[in-house]
Amino acid sequence: MRISNIVPDSGHAKRYDLHSHSLFSDGTLTPSELVRRAHAAGVEVLALTDHDVTDGLDEAQTAAGQCGISVIAGVEISVTWKNQTLHIVGLNIDPDHSGLQQGLARLRKFREWRAEEIGRRLEKKKIDGAYAGAARLAKGTIIARTHFARFLVEQGYVRGFSQAFRQFLSRGKPGFVPGQWATLEEAVQWIVTAGGQAAVAHPARYKLSAGKMHQMLSEFHDCGGEAIEVVSGSHTPEANLHFAGISREYKFLASAGSDYHGPEQTWMDLGKLPSLPEGCTPVWRDWTQYENTARQALA
Q: Which of 108, 128, 147, 187 counts the highest number of beta carbons within 10 A?
């Protein structure tokens, strides 16, 4: 497992946030700014999990060394399952693994085409310059729907992000383009072969029946998936408790992440995550042994 910039053991439970984004995907902060903000908020172990790209990890880990917190090498992979878009977080990946990078490159190529197509579809609705505007707001390698939403807000077409998605960017709306992402098996295998742990991101956000959720989680487990995000910045307290029960039922490890995108757009600020509910086995359960080994090696 690849935990960088090990924090000395202070004798108390560390504050983990294992889902965050920088401007290398659809966040608004540089990796350095993100790490410094996490440190100021009391986060001790942060995972940078940009969408389908790992380019920000070196900068994040350099900043973490300066701040004295731990940064986990992560990624959030886009998946198409039963015509539904899911997100699978990879934790403790080897970002240099060739199989992982080949898979991510394929997804980024589709993202490039999708962004152009969203722009074309919005042009048909008399929204001029949408692609150029989104590209201007996207300072990394990814142009996401979030950047189109920011453009629509900036230009006064809508009042806020939620309206941008409801009116233009969600399924059935003028700017919606169906995803052609990785399969669930592909995403999990990219993560596992890169030495990481796969976790289902923010499961409460998926519009799946109980039966479909069971089918998805069973397939995820069979593919080698180990964890689900029990605590998420976009979950309600009731959802956290529900997925704590799911994690116990399926014997999944439990992860926790704010899904922080920046101060302008966030469900929950860094450092504000509640603790995992009782009875959960944290995804970082075996990281302590690794941290101790790493400290001895550095001594």
A: 187
Number of alpha carbons in the 13 Å side-chain half-sphere of residue 7: 24
Q: Which domain holds residue 163?
A: 105-169
Phi, psi of 203 (to 5 degrees): -60, -25
Residue 75 shares a structural domain with residue 216: yes
Q: What's phi and psi for 102, nearest 5 deg?
A: -65, -40
Residue 179 lies in a domain: no
Q: Which helix (H) or strand (E) holds 80?
A: strand 70-81
Helix (H, G, I), strand (E, B) or coil at 245: helix
203: DSSP letter = G
Q: Cα separation of 8 and 299, whole Å?
A: 11
Residue 113 neighbours by CB distance under 10 Å: 11
Q: Is residue 100 part of a domain?
A: no
Kindly report the backbone phi and psi dihedral angles of residue 51, in degrees, each rounded to the nearest multiple of 5, phi listed first: -70, 115
Q: Could you tell me if residue 183 is inside a domain?
A: no
Q: How many residues does the chain have?
A: 299
pLDDT in tens, 232-291: 999 999 999 999 999 999 999 999 999 999 987 667 899 999 999 999 999 999 886 444
The Cα-based distances of 150 to 28, 133, 158 in angstroms read 11, 9, 10
> What digits encode the pLDDT tens for the residues 13-66?
579 999 999 999 999 999 999 999 999 999 999 999 999 999 999 999 999 999
